[in-house]
Amino acid sequence: MATRKPISLVKGENHVAETWPDEPIRFSEDHVDDFLLWCVNKGSSDVTIQSDRRVYNELSGKLYPATYRPLDSAEMAAFLNKIYGPEALAKLASGTDLDLSYEIRPDRYNRSRFRVNITPILSKGRDAAQITMRVLPADPPTFKQLGVEDHIINNWAPRQGMIVVTGPTGSGKTTLLAAGIRHLLEGKHGCGKVLSYEAPIEYTYDNIEGPHSLISQTEIPRHLPDFYRGVRNALRRKPEIILVGEARDRETISAAIEAGQTGHTVYTTTHTTGVAATIRRMISTFEPEERAERAYSLMETMRMIVTQALVPKVGGGRLGVREWMVFDDIVREKLLEMDYNEWAPEVQRMIDQYGQTMEKSATQVFEEGLIERRPYLMLTQSGGAGG
């Protein structure tokens, strides 16, 4: 099929702004994987595919056209069918967005993976779609690569109980959690059987070696319908460690608490900002009549809460800034002797002694010249809600 000659759409930036050299006169499903692999090799962090628009690559935080011409509805349908399947248009028409992972295997030794969101939109007065594809690294990063503090690393592997990673959407919770699982798998003595339940699976651990570790990944809702059923499933499989992608409802939180109380170590995330706010939010998911009982069960299992925000880094890229608190025996005993309604302010007072506030972390990286003044002020004035 005829293709277009690559064209630079930004003068003087041929190295990044060149469109796909093999762009066809009309995209079909057969072109999708080759095009996406070209985007990956170009260094794209995100690929955005939208009806009636050119495809865009995000390179170092800036958008560049990846195709010479906009996609029409038939070409958009080809992308949707290839990436999701023939039901995509019907699901979008029902008023829901779609989250999934997508993988390309050009040969038996290599693969490229994407985290995908497909959202219905309006374009030129008719129903349309936007596909956002985050390019995922082949392997999860290490704690060292993320600059994770020693205090967090040293308390990352409790014998049992719950560790919660929190932050707003796009704050790198999944990446931090993946680095933590890699840390466990690569440990000298291993970590036994790890069961993860994620929606979707973003990082895989095929290349991570641990002679005394074994991980099994289950995708929600592809393999099981929800996180609650994931935890119930895990309890029947004799794991040492359970990873729950998100604890967002009372059923999942209750199941995670039960797992932590029965000798497992549970890692999960929530969309909260700040250690104290996380405790308050998790308790509030329960009905008033059961709240006290569930609150004390939660505190008995809690081992550490880490809140992360991602902010622009001087010189390019983004930097994780973290607030955290370790819930050791002394902390838990003190809080369990109090009314649970008093926990949030008390936890806020205890963070400096048993962890570190977002304000202190932000001040450190700002004084080191790693972040600009504006993100520093956002983090310190919002109590860690930035990102």
Give an overview of the whole structure.
With 387 residues, this protein is an alpha/beta fold. The protein folds into 2 domains: 122 residues, 2-Layer Sandwich (Beta-Lactamase), CATH 3.30.450; 239 residues, 3-Layer(aba) Sandwich (Rossmann fold), CATH 3.40.50. It contains 15 helices and 14 strands. An 8-stranded mixed β-sheet has the order 9-8-10-11-7-12-13-14, sandwiched between helices. It has a 6-stranded antiparallel β-sheet with strand order 3-2-1-6-5-4. β1 and β2 form a beta hairpin. α14 runs antiparallel to α15. The longest helix is centred in the first third of the chain and has 14 residues. It is globular and about 70 Å long. It starts with 13 loop residues before the first helix and ends in a 6-residue tail after the last helix.
